[in-house]
Structures are given as structure tokens and as C-alpha cells.
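Researcher: We're teaching a course module on how sequence relates to structure. For the next exercise, students receive a sequence and then see the predicted structure as C-alpha cells, so they can try to spot secondary structure elements on their own. Here is the exercise chain.
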Amino acid sequence: CALPICGSDTVTFSTSSRRVNNMDFTGFSGTFTNSQQTIHGSYTISTGMTVGAGTEVTTFAATTAQTITTNGKTLDFPITFDGVGGTWSFADALTQGAGKAFTMTNGTVQLKAGATSTVGAFATSGTNMKYLQSTTNGVQATISQASGVVSTSYLTIKDINATGGATWQSFITDQNVDGGDNTGWDFYAQIGRAHV
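Model: And here is the predicted structure for the students to work with:
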């Protein structure tokens, strides 16, 4: 089958950097190995498939609104969001492998409202403003990281509860913006105020 992918084979991208539009594994019961890839559309994982772990980065590079559906599968590889004007809405909770980078460079990430998404190592890069928010305005989504210190810059955060053992620092002096309805974030430590 072409994309969308079906069947029960092992799928591996043979080139070092594969670019695709939508990736839809609905009905696929095989294995998708970890490989470097850039996705310009939506991304859907099947409930019956095996998602390979590894160190190759999956980059979401859309410049329009897209959806990511994990169907309860762990994405045990680094993830980067880097599409100017792109918005990626999670249809369900994200579970990422421990220690794997979750990097926001451009665009908007909307975590599933009312659900807890677990990331390996949250980070921001670049000097463009990025946006982390819930899929539903006024309803918090939860982001969890097991340990470490998360230090962001140029990030606007709205309707996000940060938890999981990590220390979440988004100081306003580092060009971060508290968009409201956030808990667990430290926006003011550098000027002597407590976290929210």
C-alpha cells in the first residue's frame, strides 16, 4: 500500500531524511522503524502497530493546522515542531520515551485538554515566539516530565498544567508569556516571585 499505510510488514524509510505529507497508519498492524523524517501533514498511529524506538528525529514542519493521533502508543524518539504558522493538535495524550527531546522551534502545539501528555525532555529553540496551549480554550491540558529543569524561551503558554517531578521555568525575562490558566510553571523566579 502507499501512504496511508496498511498491512503487517515492517516499514523503514531508506533515505537519511524522508519528507512526507500525511502519515496515516490506520489499519496497519506491522512495525514502523525509527528513521529520520519530516512530516508536513497529519500523523495517525494505529492501535495495532509497533512503533520503533530510536534516536532519529521526527520533525513536524507543517505551516497549517494538523492533527497528531497516537492511539496510546509511546513515541520513543525525539520530536521537533518547526513550521512557521503551523498548529499541531493532539487528538489524545502523548507519551514520549524517557529522555527523548520534545523541541519547539516554531508554531503552536495544542496538547489534549483534560489529558496528561508525557514528554521526555521539553525544550525550546530559536527566537521566534512559539505557543503551547490546550486543545480547548479554558480547559487545562497537563504536560509531565519525570525529572530535570525545563528552561524555556520565547514561549507563550496558556491552559497548561506542568507536573511530573521536573522543575518548569518559563521566566518572563527570557521572553516567555503567561497566557493565563497555567499551573506548575515558574514565570517569576528571577525577580523573586513564587511560581504559579
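Model: If you want an answer key for the exercise: The longest strand covers residues 79-90. The CA atoms of residues 155 and 176 lie 5 Å apart.
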